[in-house]
Amino acid sequence: MTAPATANAVQEDAAGHVLAFPAADTARATRDSRPLRLITCGSVDDGKSTLIGRLLWDTKAVKEDQAATLRRDSNGKQNDLGLPDFALLLDGLQAEREQGITIDVAYRYFSTDKRSFIVADTPGHEQYTRNMATGASTADLAVLLVDARVGLLEQTRRHATIATLMGIKQFVLAVNKIDLTDYDRARFEQISHEFRELALSLGVRQVTAIPLSALKGENVVYDGRASMPWYDGPTLVEVLELATTRSAQTVGFRLPVQRVSRPGESFRGYQGTVAGGSVKPGDSVVILPSGMVANVTKIVTFDLVRNAAVAGDAITLVLDRQVDVSRGDMIVAIDSQPLTGLAFDAHIVALQPDGIQPGKRYWLKSGSRRQRVQVQPASQLDLQTGKWEHAEQLSMNAIGKIHLVFDEQAIFDPYEQNRTTGAFILIDPDTNNTVAGGMITAKRSALGGIHTEDARVILSLPADLADQLMATELFAGRREDAEVRRVSAGKASEIIDTIDG
Amino acid sequence: MPHTHPETELHNPQSTKPPLDPHLKALENEAIHIFREVAAEFERPVMLYSIGKDSSVLLHLARKAFYPGRVPFPLLHVNTGWKFAEMIAFRDEIVKRYDLDLIEHVNPRGAAESVTPFSHGSALYTDIMKTEALRQALDAGQYDAAFGGARRDEEASRAKERIYSFRTPDHRWDPRNQRPELWNVYNGMVRKGESVRAFPLSNWTEVDIWRYIQAEDIPIVPLYFAKKRPVVERDGMMILAEDQRLELLPGETKRDEVIRFRTLGCFPLTGAIRSDATSLDDIISELETATVSERQGRAIDRDQSGSMEKKKREGYF
Ligand SMILES: Nc1nc2c(ncn2[C@@H]2O[C@H](COP(=O)(O)OP(=O)(O)O)[C@@H](O)[C@H]2O)c(=O)[nH]1
Ligand SMILES: [Mg+2]
């Protein structure tokens, strides 16, 4: 979709009535994949809502009656292009319109002839970070906006960090309002450079930086070559069309059991959505936490008895023997099992005014499993320095590391490996509200209260191998826990000899 | 265009219909997941059934979610008494065919105080016969979860709504204080009297609905297909003129037009569109070039922008 930015202009008469619309040439999106889910984030007024409004407008997802309403609601509040305030397409709550800000996440839908998209417009105010986290949890890609005149802000850092923690690996840096800098190339390059450094420190490698004007629609759907001849990279939509959707098909089979179906004496099936890997009749599986083993006999769906199911499929599984399975259990591959235990480490984002209190008991829900947990905050991320500081409790919007201690066996995969079985929410039993979103990082062996937190291991590795290890995201996430000294092979064996005695 | 269907659905000898494309499959999977989660977590779920296309899809997904078992909750139809006759006939046929439990509720104030869309105006009428009626029915059944077929692409305040939408004991929605909803981990914890509205079709668009109806061969009310029908022009809408209770106003005349409906509700408040679409294929291609949204034909949504949010705060679906 490349055409000059003016090609999409809406024709209208002096009174602002729409006379002609961009030709409705929206071809059928090919449905070869599931929709790409993306979020827009960034600080207040960077233009997030305007950008999505522009995406909807230029992909013709806005219908005439909606445009007429929009025009009426804009109340003469038009920009110098005579276009309505696109943000009003998104800010659908009365309070948002009154205050001119985004309070809660809005989900919108649009498609090009290559693909369809679900976009979450998230609020920029720190106070509403929880709604940004909500949007980030399911996104495949984040569009991070910065105002070209202002550059990176703490909110940019916060949002990039939350997005990364939540497993987003593809970023678009949208350097917006470039029209207000006279299309200053140096400015664009400086901001992209700064962001790439931030991204690297977070372990993100896929960043596309685009100079754009959401308002004028330059480099959004249509290219902005007329104003920015110096930019020959892709438009935003081109990047979105090529982005990848993630799936958990390559890891071990996981089926969190939602309910047991027993319509009659002769049928007993376990219903749930495959959260990882695949399964076929004949496979041996283990039921957790009991540890009982069984074989899959049938995969039942409404349409047909299937010969296999993969991550994402909602199925009913039938096993070859009478085993005790109930809601909250997990049926998993026998040769690739998740972690089970009573103590885990996790990252969380605190979402409510009361924050997260030390030692408090919460409900934890992960998949279909809900259990009691005691939460101990350990550290909190300092967004200014990017360092983890010791913390006793976490306040609202804080990003923290916590220890989780359960009364009964818990079952997880590290979030890195599985975005479903590694994710959880915390629910405050006093208010029933969702107070945190969390991502499992590791299992702890909390035997007899001895914490392995301080345990250290010395590895002696060839430098190239060490470099590769340090370049991994896992390492990037725990940089501050590691101490790295480069020494010669001779020196290394000297040191290790003294340890071995 | 080569399709990348999961290998698992190819060449299944027992399958007669072609597999869903990955886009619709993903939407179906998500909806089934939500149905099962709510059915397992709540004590008294109910499904709002309005007989329209979204309800038809919702019902189909419910049947899929619980197969081979029965749908484990009743359907609730909040009737105003002013639905299209064809809708009611269709409803009764579906309930019989699929062995469903149907609860019908009509607000007794309708008859007692002669509340009609003509006498009370669309806003007050909707308030009493739909919003208030729904609250009555939900209270009577003590339901702690109610499924609805709302989609986020329908309207700006719906675009903000969670999949589990929390309601206070008096059914209020507080859009400024919604519970965060991360991943597909839903918080179903409510106290006595509180409830959630659950929306399995949140992420579907109107085109998705039609394409799914086509792919799955889901029965729908014939009013969605174009046919020559008697209409009368009123308030800028074409209204179906079949019901005896519709009195022509001075200057109004009945005439025949080839029309269909894009949404279905109460016949005096629902505008028809001129259309030649007599098949699902026709409807889908009509939609893909449509320049107006589906809600345009609904009087109750046009009152003012933000009117849906207001109604929702008060307990409307
Ligand atoms: N000149 C110019 N103004 C913009 C651009 N994008 C957004 N704006 C304006 O910036 C203001 C804030 O935009 P909004 O979308 O509400 O920001 P949000 O808080 O990030 O959602 C509005 O007045 C927009 O019209 C742009 O590319 N160029
Ligand atoms: Mg905004």
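^ guanosine-5'-diphosphate complex. The CA atoms of residues 266 and 295 of chain A lie 18 Å apart. The longest strand of chain A covers residues 369-382.
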